[in-house]
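About this split. The held-out portion is used to measure sequence recovery: a designer receives only the structure tokens and must propose an amino acid at every position. Recovery is the fraction of positions where the proposal matches the reference. Here is one held-out target exactly as it appears in the evaluation file.
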């Protein structure tokens, strides 16, 4: 039975053998029957019926609160006193289950368009549970299921979820309260959400991205919906009207916003002058997720004297690939230099520069070996002495940029002796 919904019953006056007593004109004219409940609840209408031809017909018994969703409610029918025939036996109905109306609804209240991967829960959809106030009882929500569609290969399990109520319930974020499948999120409320008779309550679904170091998270779209048939209410109150799926007014798009640059993999630590330097970097947020939509130029600057070429590269899908652009540095070389990379302070702002340090730019032959006087030459040579050092020199290799040793294969010394002598003397 449903609250405030007509019930019918028919009682017959019979003798001990079950024969109907139809003597309405002589013995039972004006007799009536009254119905009461076995609990403390009220009967809103149709609580009595007049007997006619031995029969009392009830066509509009309307039961009020409280509901009895577990059954056990009985209706008791008693004969009125003071008539010519008094029936002392009370007729009793079978167990009745009394529930609320199927009139509560779910409506979409507010949608959102952007979800940021910033480690915080963000509102993604707001809905309202509405009790129409038709039966005098509240709506008690036991659980609610949201349908989640995610583009790419992701599912609802890639996100953490919260449900926020108004002042009647606190934020529900306990993972035990959530059953998350590939395409659905079910929140078990255990009757915590009570929508008063004739009232509405707002629920806000919230999500948090759990991914890090993703190369394709940016631009992922989420669509949200809820089927009223998947909202479970307690039978002690009003129940949900089934029907068409309720959709969020707009899909959500994950928007990765770069906060830093970082290198992609291991970077070269040296190269020859004029050769392509295969460096590459990406723009990411704090969690390492790549910003695919960024429009920035990155400039590479060399600390040495060599001139850079193709050293300004535009980011494509979040990556600045200097190797593909043919970035190179001309001679002179320089060991243990630094290549710095800076963005142009565009949409993402001026991000922190990054560098390859140290970086060695190597010449094939930097021709930097030196020869210099070593010691003090003697001014007098004694003819009676043995071999005497008259001149010393030192060969040095500064190691500027070629990484090669200096090897002497021949050495020519030029000596001038005053006449009439010669070097052979």
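Reference sequence for scoring:
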């Amino acid at each position: 039975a449903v609250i405030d919904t007509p019930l019918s019953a028919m009682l017959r006056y019979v003798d001990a053998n079950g024969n109907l007593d139809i003597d309405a004109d002589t013995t039972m004219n004006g007799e009536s029957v009254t119905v009461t409940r076995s609990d403390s609840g009220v009967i809103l209408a149709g609580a009595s019926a007049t007997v006619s031809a031995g029969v009392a017909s009830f066509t509009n018994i309307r039961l009020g609160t409280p509901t009895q969703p577990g059954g056990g409610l009985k209706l008791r029918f008693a004969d009125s006193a003071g008539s010519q025939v008094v029936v002392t036996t009370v007729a009793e109905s079978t167990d009745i289950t009394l529930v609320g109306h199927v009139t509560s609804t779910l409506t979409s209240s507010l949608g959102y368009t952007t979800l940021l991967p910033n480690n915080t829960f963000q509102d993604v959809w707001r809905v309202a549970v509405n009790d129409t106030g038709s039966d005098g009882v509240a709506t008690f929500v036991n659980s609610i299921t949201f349908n989640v569609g995610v583009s790419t290969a992701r599912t609802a399990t890639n996100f953490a979820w919260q449900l926020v109520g108004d002042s009647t319930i606190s934020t529900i974020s306990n993972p035990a309260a959530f059953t998350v499948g590939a395409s659905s999120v079910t929140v078990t409320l255990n009757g915590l959400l009570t929508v008063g008779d004739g009232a509405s309550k707002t629920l806000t679904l919230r999500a948090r991205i759990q991914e890090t170091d993703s190369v394709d998270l940016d631009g992922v779209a989420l669509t949200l919906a809820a089927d009223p048939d998947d909202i479970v209410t307690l039978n002690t109150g009003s129940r949900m009207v089934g029907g068409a799926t309720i959709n969020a007014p707009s899909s959500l798009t994950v928007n990765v916003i770069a906060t830093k640059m970082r290198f992609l993999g291991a970077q070269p630590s040296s190269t020859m002058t004029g050769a392509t330097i295969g460096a590459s970097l990406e723009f990411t947020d704090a969690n390492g997720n790549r910003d695919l939509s960024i429009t920035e130029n990155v400039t590479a600057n060399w600390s040495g004297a060599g001139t850079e070429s193709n050293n300004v590269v535009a980011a494509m899908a979040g990556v600045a690939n200097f190797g593909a652009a043919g970035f190179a540095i001309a001679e002179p070389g320089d060991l243990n230099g630094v290549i710095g990379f800076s963005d142009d302070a565009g949409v993402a702002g001026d991000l922190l520069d990054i560098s390859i340090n140290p970086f060695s730019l190597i010449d094939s032959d930097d021709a930097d070996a030196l020869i210099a006087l070593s010691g003090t030459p003697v001014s007098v040579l004694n003819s009676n002495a043995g071999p005497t050092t008259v001149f010393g020199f030192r060969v040095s290799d500064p190691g500027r940029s070629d990484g090669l040793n200096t090897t002497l294969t021949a050495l020519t010394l030029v000596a001038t002796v005053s006449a009439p002598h010669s070097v052979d003397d």
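Annotator remark: Residues 24-28 form the longest helix (5 residues).
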